[in-house]
């Protein structure tokens, strides 16, 4: 079995394809020439490959960068308008007590 290349491109309904970018497997192969091939999984968003080390700081749904809310001490995705950390469960927690359902509803 040959080497595999797996690209996960733009999670927004896969709007871009290789053909849209003017690429094909043959053209990619010819670009490689005598260069060493890289094997692995690559995550792409907006035409850019995301580094695996930066993925923990990105939304698992849309791959946009996560933000932090000081008032509620929680991480959220502005694009998805969702909290990416659950409440702590302490009914007296000053951070979670008044946290709205959506980050966009914060002051």
Keywords:
three-stranded antiparallel sheet, single chain, mainly beta, 107 residues
Structure described in brief:
This protein is mainly beta and 107 residues long. It has one helix at residues 25-32; strands spanning 5-8, 40-45, 48-50, 67-69, 74-77, 82-83. The chain has 2 domains: 5-50, no CATH class; 57-107, no CATH class.
Description:
This protein is mainly beta and 107 residues long. The protein folds into two domains: 5-50, no CATH class; 57-107, no CATH class. The protein is 7% helix and 21% strand. It is built from one helix and six strands. It has one helix at residues 25-32; strands spanning 5-8, 40-45, 48-50, 67-69, 74-77, 82-83. The protein has a three-stranded mixed sheet, with no helix packed on it. Strands 4-5-6 form a three-stranded antiparallel sheet, with no helix packed on it. A hairpin with a 4-residue loop joins strand 4 (67-69) and strand 5 (74-77). The radius of gyration is 20 Å and the shape is elongated. 7% of the residues are buried. The model has no long low-confidence stretch (mean pLDDT 77).
Distance between the termini: 56 Å
Q: How many helical stretches?
A: 1
Encode the helix/strand succession as letters.
Answer: EHEEEEE
Oligomer: single chain
User: Segments where pLDDT lies below 50 for 5+ residues?
Assistant: none
Shape: elongated
Average pLDDT: 77
Sheet with the most strands? 3 strands, mixed
Rg calculated over all Cα atoms: 20 Å
Which percent range describes the beta-strand content?
15-25%
> Helix- and strand-based class?
mainly beta
Number of domains: 2
- Please state how the strands of the largest beta sheet are arranged side by side: 1-2-3
- Roughly how much helix do the residues carry, as a percent range? under 10%
